[in-house]
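Give me structure tokens for this 305-residue protein.
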Amino acid sequence: MIAEVFITCALTGSGNTVERSPHVPVTPEQIARSAIQAARAGAAVVHIHVRDPITRRGSRDPALYREVVHRIRESDVKPIINLTAGMGGDLMLGQADSPLPPNLTGTDMAGARERLVHIEELRPEICTLDCGSMNWGIGSQHVMVNTAGTLRAMAARVKELGVRPELEVFDAGQLVLVRDLIEERVIDDPALIQLCMGIRYGAPNDPTTLMALVHRLPPRAVYSTFSIGRMQLPFVALAPLVGANVRVGLEDNLYLSRGQLATNTELVQRAVEILQGMGVRVMGPDEVRQKLALGDNRSLRTAAI
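Here you go.
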């Protein structure tokens, strides 16, 4: 068990959750306001996707990221900004007997550099890289595509930019790639890793599977874990027991309790209550910056860009 942890709040994601809860932020103003409120409640890190304000679906538009980040940076709180770089890897194949050509509805495939346009412009302290490919959606032809070559290229560019990658791991095999990237010095050691549990066709959210992943982590890794759905808050209590930091938020779970829709602020507040009740101290953003050497990471590289 660890005695102190930091909380990440994943604010909105890109899934079809806005139809299920009025609290999921959509516009840049709503996403930024939710980030600021989550930071005031105790989140040291805010993990950000953006959505098209018209369609309300996930977007890669740099202008949307620009507005969200500007609003947060101009606020009176200074959470660590963690932007996703996961968008641009969605492949919707054709029918099972005729997979090609792919279905253009739902397919969004972009090159490594294109997926980092907003990272290059805004230079967040952290950005996420999804560390593998996997099937997505029951009975669908949807594949989340992140090839080893694309991830190497993205990780190398992120390192040049002085941005710390958070490596999102959805199953045990993806930790093999993480170790390869460390050995090749494409990413810095110690690695920052997020163990993503309970996603269908990924690692299930039972404690035995979680411990199997923890035992396969690279030495010295700094890691967090979360589960989607109703197990999100139980995972808040489980995380420090296995040496992990915490993630909550509406990207992964819409409910505070059975039948009670949550806000991001309420989920962070509940996480703080759980952790403090266990005697675990919640770290602030400046402490986390020091722990992760975020300022050092930036200063070493931005002068060379």
